[in-house]
Amino acid sequence: MTAVPNAPAGQAELEAARLLLARLGVSPGDLLQMAPSRPPAPTFAEYVPVVAAAVSDGSRRAYGSYWKRVLEHWADRRLDEVKPSDIERLVEHVKAHVVVRSNARGGRSAAENLVTALRCLYRRAVADGYLAEAENPASKVAKPQRLPSTRRAVPDTRLAEINRVAASTGDDPVLDSLLLRLHTETACRRGGALALRPVDLDEQQCLIMLREKGDTVRWQPVSPTLMRHLRQHTEDRHAPANGQLLRYRDGQPITHRRYDHLWERIGRHLPWVAKQEISTHWLRYTTVTWVERNFGYAVARAYAGHAEGGGAVGTTATYVRASLQEVAAALAALTREPHPLA
Fold it and tell me: N or C: which end of the chain has fewer CB within 10 A?
């Protein structure tokens, strides 16, 4: 077998391949016909429920509303009929029709979440053999660049106001006060609190086991006071050992809606809470920031339950940015004039 002399780079290999195929009596068309068959791609109406049943509860909550949007537009279309340009048009539609809130940012989060939800859907389709990786349209659509979060640490005086309202209003102030104490003291996520069980309490060492997103599990120290209240809550509300710990007075486990109602009520009493859309996650920022300021970055990262690695700066840096109060204090020191936030 002799290569073609003076052929461009790659041309010699092509000529050698053609010569080999000719000797074997195989044409390029024969190779195409021999490509392995695969099942026909399902419609979105057929496939979204399959993926929704396969993912975790957290992913289902995060992507569910966006898969619903997809079904509203493409229910009867097959997965292999959608092009990247179709996804880009749907992204723009979602951005244009996003619910306008006081902290709205032009629908960027909705657009990002839609692309992420479609990437999850198409990754499953590739794994199930309905599409080749090169045919995945969602992987060819760029997600909008995420803007820095507007969340920040809540000042001590404001945090005291929040706790006062929670403890003096509503139909179950004992439960609401316990929720705020749990999140403020441990910096846990809502999912971690809702997954907490009585068997996760180590009373002797004052530790609780937190099971949070990404199937992470960690032991978190708590104060004897919080441990006592968690144990009392377990007994008063008859929480089974392996069942959810946080419950209503009637013994039914609470859901994410309890948090929504709590912050809606606090916002009615404290307009600044509603205006800034303060939520449980702000308590996580508050605690992690305080720990970082007083005990350093490494301790703050462990306190937040963030994965180690990635150098000195990682996810925790998002939580410990300088607050407005700290910036105002710097301004006051610079100008030697008092500032209301300092």
Answer: N
